[in-house]
Amino acid sequence: MSLPEEDYYSKHRYQINIVECAYAVVQRMKAVKKRPKNQISVEEYAFRLREAINAYKWSIQFDPSASEMSRKQACVISPTHPAFDFWLALHLSIEDSDEIPMLLDAYNDDEFDHVENFLGHVQFFVLKMMKSNKLYDFKEQKKAVIDWVREQKAKQKDQKNIKEPQTTIHIEQLNYIKNETSIDVQILNQLTLLLQQFNFQQFNEFINIYQETCKETKEPDENEMENDNQYNIKEPNTARIPLSLNYPQVLDYFMQLTKHKNNRHIKKKDIENLVKANFEFRDMKVIGKKKLLDVNIEKQILNQFIYTFFNEHDFSNYSNKAKIYCQFMIDNFVLFRYDNLTTVRKNFSRKSSVHYPFSK
Predict the structure, then answer these.
(1) How many CA atoms within 13 Å lie on the side-chain side of 345?
(2) Closest CA relative to residue 181, chosen from 51, 86, 64
(3) Integer CA distances (angstroms), 208 to 60, 98, 137, 175, 201, in order
(4) Backbone phi, then psi, for 69, in 5-degree steps?
(5) Are 240 and 280 in contact (CB under 8 A)?
(6) Which range is least confidently modeled, 34-43, 84-93, 135-144?
(7) Diameter of the chain measured on Cα atoms
(8) Over 70: is that where the pLDDT of 189 sits?
(9) What is the Cα–Cα distance from 302 to 93, expressed in whole angstroms?
(10) Contacts of 101 (CB under 8 A, 6+ apart)
């Protein structure tokens, strides 16, 4: 009898599956008995790691409909990926210290892919991130990395050959010690409950979903649903997008969000507010306050949904039009609220790699 396809999944001992790595890091954080008051919480860091994993999946056009083996294999990060230094730093902080020299040798010898100036990456990026990590103690691991760097430098005949890699890596949102990000109370409560009985399967499900709403044992009324799934923006962008389309046309397009199987909590009045608060019409005056809408679909699908409207429905022509629509996504949808405008603009025209459920 042949084994199921997922049983064939395997990786080298030193390759990094970012989901397994993130889970191990969270477990290590949970084991710390006394945590400094100003240190990031386990719940919030777990949330941030999930966002980092979803950003990685977005960058490789991860296919959630692929086989389990393919999905697991896709989470094994390549050393040439821009986020590799970040995940290597995390992985080294939980690796057995006596394994670290052999692990680094494997990558330095291009066993998994060629990395230009891998030693420079470890010395200038990875070690810097490890030193910033205040989540738990790993002095032995840090020492092992430093010793390996010194040993490799001693082998170099020309010390000047080891230069800082000319690579720009944006790790702002993944920073170990950045503490100002806040999580909505609903998500924080969900995470707290989840972490009380945290096993790998739960974690794996957790990082594969977006802002999941808590399940109710009874059907809440409309006002409760609105309060649970929308969050007022403290300092909203008040500019409206000028349109040649009329209000019913725009409303009809965005009403598609209510018809998706996972978006029954979104009501017509939510979409009416979204349209009135963000678009300017020639034939009517609109009044509305921007709110964050919690849409239960993949981030890349929502991105394509907005881009399709921008590209195939709104034929207005003015400067910075794409930038304005990207800001619209950040201002109005939970999935984009922590995103950088530059990153959103870069991915704006990218098509979804999964089934697109909406009509054009």
Answers:
(1) 9
(2) 51
(3) 15, 33, 29, 21, 11
(4) -60, -45
(5) yes
(6) 34-43
(7) 74
(8) no
(9) 35
(10) 144, 147, 148, 151
